[in-house]
Task: inverse folding
């Protein structure tokens, strides 16, 4: 019983893109605080990738143009080492820590990164040259980590945090591409005579381990004419305001007007234990508070296994931001308003049941560990591209009593899958000789009534890409 409860609560986090991105903050997130931009605009896409790869500390954004010191260099080199190790690059031996001179130049940083590379079995790609320092520069030129006009690479110039971050990110990206390392995802391709649509099942709440994406996914996105998502959760400011208003109880009412005394008592006890005052949550509707608590359970410190899951690391937001950087059109299969109305349409009985079950995650420590294991399993299945295993586990997660199961299935699966399939069909039938990169929740892609199955039933040939 516990297993099914936990899976169902977590499945909601993967179904609505707005759940994982926009919610009235029960806890302030320092990482999302708006700060003055301290880096060059041309560097932004690479820095964003480096942050996803967990190479660049968030605090570096305070002043990206500051010089690198020994502590910053050590942090960067350790992050590169940790990432290569996590990605499964085989180590060739142990090395001493790299110690730099007092003035850390561009050359110093490149040599330090090269020192890290030598820990791994990449010797066949390392040019044989007279000195370690020259080998480092030759290697970085070969890998396009160091770029320039070929005359002056400013190697003796003091290195900034921005430059160091760019070097590290380019290095890891290149090594991953050459080794064909990256998350495979749940990825398909469907096309007719003149139009191609790529389908990527999304994980709305993720962690750094999911990055980098495979070269096949990144190249398909790069070569597509437009990105299509459930909802543009970054640019639709009007939709964000609508969602925030929809989450609030009608004037003159509070959440206590919509839940039983038993659920209310459990709610107040849980909220008191996590340090929340009534005025911070009493005006939220049950569905809104349930979704906020579900996200809080997996992201706050001390939450699900102190898990580093976050909506800001979700796949949707990754591609939306990259589309904005590359001026790629962003299309919506739904919208923030549509999803807000959908969540608000669940019956009062269903909303209270979901809230009560979500509260169990804070009451029972065993459920936190179980939740961490389930999320990790789903994420690893996505990384490995194991659609079959995910499908089995995911649909098992939404089993429940017949009354709530019917309402959940009809509103969350049937209506939305049908609508999104029709929208994708319109792309295919447009005859405009364009390609589209579609990113929607993984749960919508799979199963007998999923988007992939519906397109196949319509006669389209859908190819799984591994």
Result:
């Amino acid at each position: 019983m516990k297993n099914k409860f936990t899976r169902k609560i977590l499945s909601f986090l993967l179904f609505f893109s707005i759940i994982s991105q926009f919610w009235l903050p029960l806890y302030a997130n320092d990482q999302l605080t708006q700060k003055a931009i301290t880096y060059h605009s041309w560097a932004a896409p690479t820095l964003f990738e480096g942050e996803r790869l967990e190479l660049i500390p968030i605090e570096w954004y305070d002043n990206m143009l500051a010089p690198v010191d020994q502590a910053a260099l050590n942090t960067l080199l350790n992050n590169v080492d940790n990432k290569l190790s996590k990605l499964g690059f085989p180590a060739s031996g142990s090395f001493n820590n790299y110690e730099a001179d007092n003035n850390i130049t561009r050359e110093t940083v490149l040599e330090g990164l090269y020192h890290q590379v030598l820990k791994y079995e990449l010797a066949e790609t390392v040019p044989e040259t007279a000195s370690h320092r020259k080998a480092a520069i030759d290697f970085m030129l070969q890998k396009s980590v160091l770029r320039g006009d070929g005359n002056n690479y400013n190697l003796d110039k003091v290195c900034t945090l921005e430059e160091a971050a760019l070097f590290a990110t380019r290095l890891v990206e290149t090594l991953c591409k050459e080794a064909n390392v990256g998350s495979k995802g749940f990825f398909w391709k469907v096309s007719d005579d003149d139009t191609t649509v790529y389908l990527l099942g999304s994980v709305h709440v993720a962690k750094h381990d999911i990055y980098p994406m495979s070269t096949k996914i990144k190249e398909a996105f790069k070569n597509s004419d437009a990105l299509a998502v459930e909802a543009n959760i970054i640019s639709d400011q009007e939709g964000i305001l609508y969602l925030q208003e929809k989450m609030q109880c009608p004037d003159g009412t509070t959440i206590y007007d919509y839940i039983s005394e038993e659920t209310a008592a459990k709610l107040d006890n849980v909220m008191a234990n996590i340090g929340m005052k009534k005025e911070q949550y009493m005006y939220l509707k049950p569905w809104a508070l349930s979704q906020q608590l579900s996200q809080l359970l997996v992201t706050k410190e001390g939450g699900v296994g102190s898990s580093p899951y976050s909506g800001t690391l979700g796949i949707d937001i990754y591609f939306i931001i990259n589309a904005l950087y590359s001026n790629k059109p962003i299309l919506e299969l739904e919208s923030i308003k549509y999803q807000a109305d959908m969540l608000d349409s669940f019956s009062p009985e269903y909303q209270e049941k979901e809230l009560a079950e979500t509260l169990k995650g804070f009451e029972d420590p065993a459920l936190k560990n179980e939740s961490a294991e389930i999320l990790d399993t789903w994420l690893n299945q996505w990384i490995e591209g194991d659609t079959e295993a995910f499908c089995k586990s995911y649909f098992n997660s939404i089993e429940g009593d017949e009354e709530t199961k019917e309402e959940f299935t009809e509103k969350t699966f049937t209506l939305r899958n049908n609508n999104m399939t029709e929208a994708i069909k319109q792309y295919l039938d447009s005859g405009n000789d364009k390609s589209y990169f579609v990113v929607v929740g993984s749960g919508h892609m799979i199963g007998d009534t999923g988007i992939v199955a519906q397109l196949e039933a319509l006669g389209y040939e859908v190819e799984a890409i591994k």
About this structure: Residues 402-428 form the longest helix (27 residues). Residues 1-6, 22-34, 301-307 have pLDDT under 50 and may be disordered. The chain is about 50% helix and 5% strand.
